[in-house]
Design a protein that fits this description.
This protein is α+β, with helices and mostly antiparallel strands. The chain contains nine helices and nine strands. The protein binds serine (SER). Serine binds next to strand 8 and strand 9.
């Protein structure tokens, strides 16, 4: 596989989508501007909700971007090798323009031909009832039927409370046996670290009124999302997202300040990873205008800073150190 940095992957993705007619737009703020249902921008689609619902976007009906995302729902799991509160989401969008055929074909082309991932390690999944997506994978892309997985609403239907939503088709990467749980039946969809979801193609065709009533949207849309850090971990063939180039540089600085080494002591590694993650979130939040306070977004920021500072003390770092990171 090609050796690629996160910066190269980011640019390759945007260029590829531009070659498909998508206009490159800037990341929106982590403070949601167009979606009152969320505290932070947690996915590339949040800033684009009005356009998924039919408003005209000034840049057109095909867009691509890299969105700064904050997800703090799993904050208590941060410190393990796979959770982040801040990540970059590569995305391409269609507002009543291209739909399933193109979105699926482009995701496959980008991963296998542009990035050069081994097609035999990639497995698509579709929503249970979505025969159309299944047939595209099977008949147009040529993936054998027994390599395409059908999952239910929990895995293959993207929705976030009220608003635009729809069935989705994900692409999993087989990271190899050494990451597996070894249990009989371990396969795509298993909770262990072997099969990692890297790309989500959402076919945004419904509006959820927030009480579970779905109405068909007049225009059919595409909302895709691929975590840059996850893609980089696959391409760079490293054990975890904390080993990819961008996070690794920050992680090493934490180790330097703590006069310690990574992967020597599991308890210290938890603190090193937590600080590495939290300082990224805190920096992007502050850059977008959030200040530590007692409620809402500011409270989340304050909590991240306090947790990072506490773990610095656990590592034996004296004095203010977050500013150096
Ligand atoms: N909204 C979808 C997700 O976050 C695809 O971008 O996974």
């Amino acid at each position: 596989m090609k050796q690629l940095t996160s910066a190269q992957l980011r640019e390759m993705f945007l260029k590829f989508m531009e070659s498909k007619g998508c206009a490159r737009i800037q990341s929106a703020s982590v403070i949601p501007e167009n979606d009152p249902t969320v505290l932070f921008t947690t996915a590339g689609m949040h800033p684009l909700v009005p356009y998924l619902m039919g408003a005209k976007h000034p840049a057109g009906t095909r867009l691509t971007d890299v969105q700064k995302c904050i997800r703090t729902g799993d904050i208590d799991d941060v410190g393990d090798p796979s959770h982040l509160t801040f990540f970059e989401m590569l995305g391409n969008f269609s507002f009543g323009d291209y739909f399933k055929h193109e979105a699926i074909a482009w995701s496959w082309e980008f991963l296998t031909e542009v990035v050069g991932l081994d097609p035999d390690r990639l497995y698509p999944s579709v929503y249970l009832e979505d025969d159309e997506a299944f047939d595209i994978w099977n008949k147009e892309i040529g993936i054998p039927a027994d390599r395409i997985y059908r999952f239910g609403k929990e895995d293959n239907f993207w929705e976030h409370g009220a608003g635009p939503c729809g069935p989705c088709s994900e692409i999993y990467y087989d990271r190899g046996e050494k990451y597996g749980c070894g249990k009989p039946g371990c396969t795509v969809g298993c909770d262990c670290d072997r099969y990692m979801e890297i790309w989500n193609n959402v076919f945004t065709q419904f509006d959820n009124d927030g009480e579970g009533h779905y109405t068909e949207l007049e225009q059919k849309n595409i909302d895709t999302g691929m975590g840059l850090e996850r893609l980089a971990s696959v391409v760079q063939d490293v054990d975890s997202i904390f080993d990819v180039d961008t996070l690794c540089a920050l992680r090493n600085k934490v180790c330097e300040l703590a006069h310690t080494e990574y992967k020597k002591d599991e308890e210290k590694d938890v603190s090193i990873r937590l600080i590495t993650d939290h300082i990224r979130s805190a920096t992007f939040m502050i850059s977008d205008g959030i200040m530590p306070t007692n409620e809402g977004r500011g409270y989340v920021l304050r909590r991240l800073i306090r947790r990072a500072a506490r773990h610095g003390r656990l590592l034996g770092i004296q004095g203010p150190f977050l500013v150096d990171l």
